[in-house]
Each structure stands twice: as structure tokens, then as C-alpha cells.
Design goal:
Number of strands: 14
Distance between the termini: 35 Å
Largest sheet: 8 strands, mixed
Strand content: 25-35%
Low-confidence stretches: none
Mean pLDDT: 93
CATH class: Alpha Beta
CATH topology: D-amino Acid Aminotransferase, Chain A, domain 1
CATH superfamily: DNA ligase/mRNA capping enzyme
Oligomer: single chain
Number of domains: 1
Order of helices and strands: EEEEEEEEHEEEEHEE
CATH architecture: 2-Layer Sandwich
Radius of gyration: 17 Å
Helix content: under 10%
Number of helices: 2
């Protein structure tokens, strides 16, 4: 662990290595956790009691309007909290076939109560996120709306990525049906967080598999 007393930019952990969807089953060995790969902008959100800074993975400020996202409501404890996630700003269609835009999905936590979680495993951070932001059901009229691959939080337009522990190839093909999801990201459960001083500091313990598009083979 290390102290994080004042805002300083940290790069979000993200994968560089890729694998073909047909190879996902070889990672089904109880060593990885899968999360959906969302089609948005990777970013970190830095939140203290009186400050909010939203930065993309290129160390630049997010230009899209995020005024309706309750980032302030995500603050927990005392001091700084830093969350990594996806800012959904590409107007992709969600599971209900409607545009799902200007939302934020949390998929990792780097700082909690002024502690930079260096040396913590991804599994430990998953447990922490589940404790801080448990899943809620969203009431729509008289019905409760459930998304298969998104967890509602109690903050407006904020979601948490669900975590999957097996059947990665089946998961990929299910995700590929929805415009919002690009594929899956697999992360080693026991991988330890290192300092995010460059874009590639934490890429070695992750691998992504993406559905083919005109720009990507997988």
C-alpha cells in the first residue's frame, strides 16, 4: 500500500494482449476473472470530499458531458478514492436495444481512503468493489429492470461490471450479441497492482478478446 494524499494522475490498468475467442476455454482454469469489455472510453475517476477529476487513459480530460453521472455519490470513506472504468459515450445500444449513453461502469479500484492499493490482488479489489457498490435492482414503473451484464449501483447513471469465474467462451458469445459489449477481458485473480506510472504498468496480467469489426480481428 502507498499513500495518495493529493491528486496526481494514475494510468488505468488495461489489457494489451489479445486472444481469439476460440482460445478462451484455456483460461478456464480457476486463475482468471472475466469482465465484459464495454465499448466506451477507458478512464479513471478521482474523487475526494470536495473534488472530482475525470481523466481518460491518455492523461487527458473527458470532453463529453458527464454532468448527469453521480460521481460525487460514489465517494466512500474519507479522503481520496480512485475508480477505473468505462465512460459510455459512443451511443451504443444496450441489452434492451435502446441507446445506452453517458453512463459510467466501474471495473477496478486503485485508491481507497487515501491508500493506493499497491500490492493488492485483483481478487481483493473485486471483493472491495462488491462491498462498496452492491448490486441494486432498478424500478421502471411497476417493474424491476435487470441487465444481464451490468450491475446497478445506487448512484444515477453509474454501474459496476459483473465478474465471471468460468465458461468464458460461452460468455463471450453471449456478450457479442449486444452492441454495447466488445467482448471480454480476463484478469488474473492473484495479480498484484503495481504503480500506474505508464500506460503499460498493469497490462501483463490481463488479456482481451474482442468480437471482429472492420478495425479489429479479435
Amino acid at each position: 500500500m502507498a499513500e495518495f494524499q493529493n491528486y496526481t494522475y494514475l494510468y488505468p490498468p488495461r489489457p494489451e494482449n489479445t486472444t481469439h475467442p476460440s482460445q478462451l476455454s484455456k483460461y478456464d482454469n480457476h486463475q482468471y476473472i472475466a469482465q465484459p469489455k464495454y465499448n466506451g472510453t477507458c478512464c479513471n475517476v478521482f474523487i475526494s470530499e470536495d473534488e472530482i477529476v475525470v481523466m481518460n487513459r491518455h492523461k487527458g480530460k473527458i470532453s463529453s458531458d458527464y454532468s448527469k453521472i453521480d460521481f460525487k455519490g460514489l465517494h466512500r470513506g474519507k479522503g481520496w478514492i480512485v475508480l477505473s472504468g468505462e465512460f459510455l459515450n459512443k451511443n451504443k445500444k444496450g441489452e434492451n436495444g435502446k441507446p445506452f449513453n453517458l453512463k459510467f461502469v466501474i471495473w477496478d479500484i486503485l485508491v481507497y481512503q487515501n491508500e493506493y492499493l499497491i500490492g493488492s490482488t485483483f481478487m481483493q479489489r473485486v471483493i472491495l468493489l462488491e462491498e462498496l457498490y452492491p448490486c441494486f435492482k432498478m424500478r421502471v414503473g411497476e417493474e424491476f429492470e435487470n441487465f444481464k451484464h451490468l450491475c446497478f449501483t445506487n448512484c444515477e447513471n453509474v454501474y459496476r461490471a459483473p465478474n465471471y469465474y468460468d465458461n468464458f467462451e460461452l460468455l463471450f458469445h453471449d456478450l457479442a450479441k449486444t452492441d454495447l459489449y466488445e467482448g471480454v477481458v480476463l484478469k488474473r485473480r492473484d495479480a498484484k497492482l503495481s504503480y500506474g506510472l505508464t500506460e503499460k504498468n498493469n497490462h501483463g496480467w490481463q488479456v482481451k478478446s474482442r468480437k471482429p469489426t472492420k478495425n479489429y480481428k479479435f
